[in-house]
Amino acid sequence: MQSEPVNLAGAVAQIQDYWDPHIVGELNGQHVKLAKVKGEFIWHHHENEDELFLVLKGVLHLEMRNRTVTLEEGDFFVVPKGVEHKPVAEDEVHLLMFEPASTLNTGNVRNERTVDRLRRI
Amino acid sequence: MQSEPVNLAGAVAQIQDYWDPHIVGELNGQHVKLAKVKGEFIWHHHENEDELFLVLKGVLHLEMRNRTVTLEEGDFFVVPKGVEHKPVAEDEVHLLMFEPASTLNTGNVRNERTVDRLRRI
Questions:
Q1: Is residue B83 in some structural domain?
Q2: Closest approach of chain B CAs to the CA of A113, in angstroms?
Q3: B60 lies in a domain?
Q4: Counted domains in chain A
Q5: What pTM did the predictor assign?
């Protein structure tokens, strides 16, 4: 349960690695996560979870099989459950994500980029 | 279901009235809402819903019975279910809220500030 206010920029600054989402808030069975990303992630989908991406800094391309959505600072997009997507960031991007606590970062795929136990800030 | 990206500042700019939350996104039974607020709201609580407030612009005071939390731009706070709170904004504040779709803006109270049918952007 959140008991103190969280400053997004301050929290992102504590993240060291790319593609390593950190939990910064929890409510109603959902997590608020922050991540620094750069480069290409893997194609994956989430069977049961819609996933919200809000760009705090930088430019994120969300590739889907039939379209690519480009998000700049202050833009958000919801990837519906079941929709395959691949986040791509040419330069460093700071992201906020809202999604159910059950969500695995690599969705239906399990590989070296899977983070099972998320860190908290 | 969200099918196009939403720019937060652009969406807030479409809101006319204070204390009139608009739905801008929906995922996993939760709503993403935006609001412009100024002045004092009423004391209320939400029986079953935790409520996240993220300040996009301005300074929001979240008065609770035992403490007041002050949020500046980029700060968020989760008011746990059952906790009485009263948002206060001396000047105009732009807010993002994340909460279950079932959440009523005035919680356990029903008065002239209750908004039953939220607008969508």
A1: yes
A2: 25
A3: yes
A4: 1
A5: 0.94
Would the pLDDT of A58 be above 50? Answer: yes
pLDDT at A121: 87
Q: In which band, very low, low, confident or very high, does the pLDDT at B2 lie, cut at 50, 70 and 90?
A: very low
Q: What is the 3 state secondary structure string of A25-77?
A: EEECCEEEEEEEEEEECCCECCCCCCEEEEEEECCEEEEECCCEEEECCCEEE
For residue A52, give its domain range.
8-120
Hey, are the CB atoms on A6 and B75 less than 8 Å from each other? yes
Tell whether the model's pLDDT for residue B113 goes beyond 70: yes
A96 located within any domain: yes
Q: What CATH number is given to the structural domain containing B88?
A: 2.60.120.10
Average pLDDT for A47-60: 97
Residue B76 is nearest to which of A25, A50, A72, comparing CB atoms?
A25
Taking CA B83 as the corner, what is the angle to CA B78 and CA B84, rounded to the nearest 5 degrees?
110
At A84-93, the pLDDT tens digits run 999 999 999 9
For residue B50, give both structure tokens. Answer: 């935790």
A86 domain-assigned: yes
Asked if B76 reaches chain A (Cβ–Cβ under 8 Å), the answer is yes
Mutate to test the interface with A, among B28, B33, B55 (most CBs of A within 10 A): B28
